[in-house]
């Protein structure tokens, strides 16, 4: 049995990458979400959570023993060196979690879904990159609607994410998501048929 090749799937906030990933899953493709992996590695009982508590103190825990993400975010938001400490701890663990999950894939290719695919270096785990792109105005509208967020908040998130140009530079395929869901799903199906013809992500 051949090992599945890995497709990296990324896109800015509100670009529609979750809808794209979901349709690939519906088509039977094994998807690993980097955000989920980031949550798994800090679950109660995991060594990473113990290290975080030891470093930041018990006030980064909720009453039920789970990580209080908001409290932790406040701590690292003000202090770049604390953020670097946390990233140095978590990134390798998240990477291991992702690799293990991708290795269990049974589909001809597997997908790593990550909003920070390019910035985090996770694209090195993939053989091909698909960027879901959308005009910035549309990203703003979708995110404000979905998260009940203000325009300023969404602008701040857009600024923190990779520049669109950087993402697109790494793209082998670009899916411009500026129409309705049925059209988007038909584009995913078209890409899926194409991906099934590839070996190691290459034609």
How would you summarize the topology of this molecule?
Blueprint: E1 5-11, H1 17-26, E2 30-33, H2 34-40, H3 47-56, H4 69-77, H5 80-103, E3 109-113, E4 128-133, H6 136-147, H7 151-160, H8 164-169, E5 173-176, H9 181-195
Parallel strand pairs: 1-3, 1-4, 2-3, 4-5
Helix pairs in contact: 1-9, 2-5
Strand content: 5-15%
Approximate helicity band: 40-55%
The number of strands is: 5
Oligomerization category of the chains in this entry? single chain
Determine the mean pLDDT: 91
Order of helices and strands: EHEHHHHEEHHHEH
Rg is 18 Å
List keywords for this structure.
203 residues; 51% helix; 2 domains; alpha/beta; Rossmann fold
What does this structure look like?
By secondary structure, this protein is of the alpha/beta class. It has two domains: 1-29 and 107-203, Rossmann fold; 35-106. It is 51% helix and 13% strand. It contains nine helices and five strands. A five-stranded parallel beta sheet has the order 2-3-1-4-5, sandwiched between helices. The model has no long low-confidence stretch (mean pLDDT 91).
Brief summary:
With 203 residues, the chain is of the alpha/beta class. The chain is built from nine helices and five strands.
